Task: inverse folding
């Protein structure tokens, strides 16, 4: 059964709303950047209204016929252990390794073999990826200004899978927790073959069942 366009529209609207709220929350965070820099504990637990809480990310998933679209929105810290723009070779290498790991998303989302799903496309968005994207052997200094402005940074990833036997798609295992131990919780919003569901995923509860 395919979700109606209306439901998909609502979810997308909810997603853009969440994203707008997130931007707003980020601004609030900038005010705290001094504090964060000093104690280095990155504990945003007191700020319950903030979408940018270290350890917590969001996962939006839509199954539409044979297509599975997954959107991950995560503080960079959860995936990398830092959020500043990389300038050292070591940090740039970490960001590039993360980019490779996210591009190999078959290891991050485990589908039932019978559903015959394969990864079609990955889109990544983050100021941290931008910082390692335009290296042509000459130095840019435009990054420095952005670095000063960013106390926190997010990573958005969109994964698109297709399944030839979508009727066999009864669950998806989210392997992000073992791949990225800094990720403690993912807030899930999903539209599966049987309807809408939400909840929280953790290392101990990493199965989305349809
Ligand atoms: Zn942060």
Result:
């Amino acid at each position: 059964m395919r979700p109606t366009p209306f439901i998909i529209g609502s979810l997308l609207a909810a997603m853009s709303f969440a994203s707008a709220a997130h931007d707003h929350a980020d601004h609030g965070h900038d005010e705290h950047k001094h504090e964060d820099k000093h104690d280095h504990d990155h504990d945003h637990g007191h700020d319950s209204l903030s979408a940018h809480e270290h350890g917590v990310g969001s996962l939006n998933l839509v199954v539409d016929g044979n297509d599975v679209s997954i959107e991950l929105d995560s503080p960079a810290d959860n995936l990398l252990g830092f959020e500043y723009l990389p300038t050292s070779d070591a940090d740039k290498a970490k960001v590039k390794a993360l980019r490779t790991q996210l591009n190999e998303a078959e290891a991050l989302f485990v589908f039932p073999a019978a559903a015959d799903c394969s990864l079609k496309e990955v889109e990544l968005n983050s100021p941290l990826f931008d910082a390692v994207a335009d290296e042509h052997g000459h130095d840019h200094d435009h990054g420095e200004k952005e670095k000063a402005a960013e106390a926190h940074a997010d990573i958005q990833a969109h994964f698109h899978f297709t399944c030839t036997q979508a009727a066999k798609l009864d669950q998806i295992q989210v392997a992000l927790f073992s791949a990225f131990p800094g990720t403690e919780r993912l807030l899930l919003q999903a539209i599966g073959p049987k309807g809408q569901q939400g909840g929280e995923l953790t290392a101990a509860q990493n199965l989305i069942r349809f």
